[in-house]
């Protein structure tokens, strides 16, 4: 039924360009994600008045599923939003992009990620999970996972109240020979949960995505050595190197994937689109190197625009 089904936090992206001093004022470390409560979110949004803010559906796994549809694949997304107008907006916009929504509702506010883009195009998140944190095993559609080639899980789900839903989904996938993809998401998240993350990767993950900082947090090694260490406990290990491309190890072979040149507008969504491309290629049984090229090309398209998602289909004949 689906090439890839994703499970993650359904969050509206509130994207805004700021200077470095604004992050310092908010005590946010550039390039990381920090969870905030509802009141802190209200305070930050008050401070943002007068700035241009772009509102789009987001969340790491949800962005990746939108990317799969951009590539001509079929995807679905599992998440939870509020029973509010922002929840309605999230579902409507996601469905417009061709993603099948398996999204449940909750009385809490729809979650949102305030995404700050600094002059170096790096992104920093202040995230209020809202309704997303109430995702539970009973919200997970078992039949849809069974009828998917790959389940893609964002690492943010593996901490706190949402963890049970993620583990339940991965158990369903494992029992039904559905490949499990895991994006480790954030270096601070990894450090807080290192032992548990290693156990989860070892027990569930067939495909693991990390960037250089995440690779170091997970293995204590730099990119190349980290790739080999992660490969010891998974089938396909991926280390994203930003403008230097990426490394993929599969079938005991390391593939160096070159980047596609792009004029960078912001890096928000680059990793998610990269995951979309690689997972689409794997789901369609393409050679890893070909899937990697699609991933790199798709990521180059999204960094050249302001938002985290592309509109319309990607022409793969241009690769």
| CATH architecture descriptor text | 3-Layer(aba) Sandwich
What is the strand content?
25-35%
Instruction: Please count the beta strands (DSSP E, at least 2 residues each).
Output: 14
Low-confidence stretches: none
Q: Under the CATH scheme, which class?
A: Alpha Beta
Which sequence of SSEs, written as H and E, runs from N to C? EEHEHEHEHEEEHEHEHHEHHEEEHH
Record the strand order, biggest sheet.
Answer: 6-5-1-9-10-11-12-13-14
CATH topology: UDP-N-acetylmuramoyl-L-alanine:D-glutamate ligase
Distance from N terminus to C terminus (CA atoms, Å) equals: 27 Å
Oligomer: single chain
Mean pLDDT value = 94
For the record, what is the CATH homologous superfamily label?
Ribokinase
Query: Which percent bin holds the helix content?
Result: 25-40%
Q: Given the C-alpha coordinates, what overall shape results?
A: globular
Task: Note the main sheet.
Answer: 9 strands, mixed
Domain unit count: 1
Secondary-structure map with pairings?
Layout: E1 2-7, E2 11-17, H1 20-26, E3 33-35, H2 38-47, E4 54-58, H3 60-70, E5 75-82, H4 85-96, E6 100-106, E7 112-117, E8 123-128, H5 142-146, E9 148-154, H6 163-175, E10 179-183, H7 187-192, H8 194-204, E11 207-211, H9 212-219, H10 223-231, E12 236-240, E13 246-250, E14 253-257, H11 270-283, H12 288-303
Parallel strand pairs: 1-5, 1-9, 2-7, 3-8, 5-6, 9-10, 10-11, 11-12
Antiparallel strand pairs: 2-4, 7-8, 12-13, 13-14
């Amino acid at each position: 039924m689906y090439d890839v089904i994703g499970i993650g936090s359904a969050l509206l992206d509130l994207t805004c360009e700021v200077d470095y001093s604004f992050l310092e004022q908010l005590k946010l470390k550039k390039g990381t994600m920090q969870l905030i409560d509802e009141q802190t979110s209200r305070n930050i949004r008050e401070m943002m008045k007068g700035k241009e803010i772009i509102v789009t559906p987001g969340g790491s796994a949800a962005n990746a599923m939108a990317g799969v549809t951009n590539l001509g694949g079929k995807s679905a997304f599992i998440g939870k939003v509020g029973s509010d107008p922002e929840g309605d907006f999230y579902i409507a916009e996601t469905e417009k992009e061709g993603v099948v929504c398996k999204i449940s509702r909750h009385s809490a506010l729809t979650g949102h990620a305030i995404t700050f883009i600094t002059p170096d195009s790096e992104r920093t998140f202040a995230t209020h999970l809202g309704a997303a944190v109430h995702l539970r095993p009973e919200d997970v559609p078992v039949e849809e996972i069974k009828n998917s080639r790959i389940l893609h899980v964002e690492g943010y789900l593996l901490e706190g109240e949402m963890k049970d839903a993620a583990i339940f989904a991965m158990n369903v996938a494992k029992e039904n020979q559905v490949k499990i993809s895991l994006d480790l998401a954030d270096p601070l998240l990894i450090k807080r949960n290192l032992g548990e993350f290693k156990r989860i990767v070892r027990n569930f993950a067939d495909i693991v995505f990390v960037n250089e900082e995440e690779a170091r947090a997970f293995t204590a090694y730099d990119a190349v050595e980290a790739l080999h260490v992660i490969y010891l406990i998974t089938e396909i290990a991926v280390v994203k190197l930003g403008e230097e491309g990426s490394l993929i190890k599969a079938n005991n072979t390391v593939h160096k994937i070159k980047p596609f040149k792009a004029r960078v507008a912001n890096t928000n969504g680059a990793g998610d689109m990269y995951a979309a491309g690689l997972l689409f290629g794997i789901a369609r049984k393409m050679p890893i190197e070909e899937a990697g090229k699609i991933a790199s090309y798709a990521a180059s398209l999204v960094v050249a625009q302001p938002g985290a998602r592309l509109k319309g289909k990607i022409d793969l004949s241009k690769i």
